[in-house]
């Protein structure tokens, strides 16, 4: 199904479901919901983010994107919108909206970094640091629940696989285009 597969490419059939594979299957070959890593990763990420947003909003008054920005600014205080967007892999508009929400809530503050008033570096306020620490306890509990049944080696392998996928994405696609 690919135009010109690489010599070491895996067969497309690994990821496909075709008519007759299962009762009530598709009319023509398409991606399998259960065997395609990117489909499963997307489904898992969407479900996780939706559930996290709901919980974080109810318990802490922030959404999942805001939590990501709290983590980002804890790891790298003074980040710009562009840097945070590249690091997290989210568009700059979503990062800017989140930072404005955090600023309005008194959790983040911006400092202009040059003559262009749009160039700002962002840090957490004391309230932002305190919120981060409270959410972190909850996030670690969610992570333990999500990783239940995995041993440490499986988790190291899984995170290694995800890191390799991210490297492959970086090599294959130019996000700045």
Give, in spatial order, the strands making up the sheet with the most strands: 1-2
- Average per-residue pLDDT, rounded, comes to 91
- Compute the CA-based radius of gyration: 20 Å
Largest sheet: 2 strands, antiparallel
Give the helix/strand class.
mainly alpha
Q: H/E order of the elements?
A: EEHHHHEEHH
DSSP helical segment count: 6
Uncertain regions spanning at least 5 consecutive residues = none
Molecular structure report:
The chain has 177 residues and is mainly alpha-helical. The chain has a domain at 37-146: Winged helix-like DNA-binding domain superfamily/Winged helix DNA-binding domain (Arc Repressor Mutant, subunit A, Orthogonal Bundle). Helices cover 56% and strands 8% of the residues. It has 6 helices and 4 strands, in the order ββααααββαα. The chain has helices spanning 37-60, 64-75, 81-88, 92-104, 126-146, 152-172; strands spanning 16-17, 30-31, 108-112, 120-124. The strands form 2 sheets. It has a two-stranded antiparallel sheet with strand order 1-2. It has a two-stranded antiparallel ribbon with strand order 3-4. β3 and β4 (120-124) form a beta hairpin. The chain is globular and about 60 Å long. The mean pLDDT is 91. This is MarR family transcriptional regulator. It comes from Antarcticimicrobium luteum. InterPro entries: ArsR-like_HTH, HTH_MarR-typ, MarR/SlyA-like, WH-like_DNA-bd_sf, WH_DNA-bd_sf.
């Amino acid at each position: 199904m690919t135009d010109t597969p690489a010599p070491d490419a895996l067969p497309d059939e690994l990821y496909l479901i075709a008519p007759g594979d299962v009762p009530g299957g598709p009319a023509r070959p398409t991606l399998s919901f259960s065997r395609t890593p990117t489909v499963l990763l997307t489904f898992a990420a969407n479900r996780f983010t939706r559930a996290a947003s709901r919980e974080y909003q109810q318990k802490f008054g922030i959404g999942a994107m805001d939590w990501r920005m709290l983590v980002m600014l804890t790891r790298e205080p003074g980040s710009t919108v562009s840097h945070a967007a590249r690091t997290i892999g989210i568009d700059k508009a979503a990062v800017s909206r989140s930072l404005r929400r955090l600023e309005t809530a008194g959790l983040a503050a911006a400092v202009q970094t040059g003559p262009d008033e749009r160039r700002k570096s962002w840090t957490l306020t004391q309230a932002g640091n305190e919120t981060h620490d409270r959410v972190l306890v909850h996030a670690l509990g969610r992570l333990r629940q999500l990783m239940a049944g995995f041993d440490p080696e499986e988790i190291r392998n899984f995170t290694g696989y995800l890191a390799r996928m991210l490297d492959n994405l970086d090599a294959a696609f130019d996000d700045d285009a």
